[in-house]
Design goal:
With about 210 residues, the chain is an alpha/beta fold. Helices cover about 40% and strands about 15% of the residues. It has helices at about 5-15, 30-40, 50-55, 75-80, 85-105, 170-190, 195-209, and strands spanning about 1-5, 20-25, 45, 110-120, 120-130, 135-145, 160, 165. The chain starts with a strand and ends with a helix.
Length: about 210
């Protein structure tokens, strides 16, 4: 029995491992881990890796990126935050967020996206699933990312489709990553992924009543 309250995670796991059984689990991380260890109900949990790392439970995971929110037009804070930007993480997140933004779906909808960025080559795989995992529309693309560019190439403090604010040296790469993510989402819709999502939304809406 796998514990998770995420419909999208259940859909993806059902497709790969149809023999598994899933049961809803709620609460903060401490509560969920306690339920795993003491209730006898769950054999494993599916959790976001970032939170588990923050709690110091590295031996129990994987995954995550940290974003920092700042006030609009706060140039001083923006300049400080820019010094901590991880270029590889930013490129991957821009592509993934653009993919999700283009499909305009929340975290409960069965959508998955994965990126890899190595030696300036960005690859992305996006997919949508039916709630039972029986249907999947997937698409893969890759492109070369320019890397750091001239400060004058882009306007200052570019705010992107992915809602990531970046410095002008990075914005060309950000736009390239977002364009790739948006393209993958568009290809999924063209391959009937929208129909799979519409069916999932219909079932979810019925379950809410």
């Amino acid at each position: 029995v796998i514990g998770t309250s995420s419909l999208r995670r259940i859909a993806q796991l059902k497709r790969r491992f149809p023999h598994l059984t899933f049961q809803n689990v709620r609460g903060n991380l401490n509560t969920r881990i306690k339920k795993l260890d003491e209730s006898g109900i769950y054999d494993a949990l599916v959790l976001a890796g970032a939170g588990v790392l923050r709690m110091g439970w590295q031996d129990r995971i994987d995954q995550g990126a940290i974003g920092v929110e700042i006030r609009e037009n706060d140039k001083k804070t923006f300049s400080i935050v820019c010094g901590y930007t991880d270029f590889n993480s930013l490129v991957c997140n821009a592509a993934e967020r653009a993919f999700l933004r283009f499909l305009d779906k929340g975290c409960s909808v069965p959508i998955g996206v994965s990126t890899n960025f190595t030696e300036n080559k960005l690859s992305i795989t996006g997919a949508v699933f039916s709630l039972d995992g029986s249907k999947c529309v997937k698409h893969f693309e890759e492109c070369i990312i320019s890397g750091l560019n001239d400060k004058n190439h882009c306007e200052n403090n570019y705010e992107s489709l992915s809602s990531i604010l970046c410095s002008s040296e990075i914005c060309k790469s950000l736009i390239e990553a977002e364009t790739l993510g948006k393209h993958v989402a568009d290809m999924i819709l063209k391959n009937h992924g929208g129909e799979v999502l519409a069916e999932a939304r219909k079932i979810m809406k019925a379950d809410e009543k």
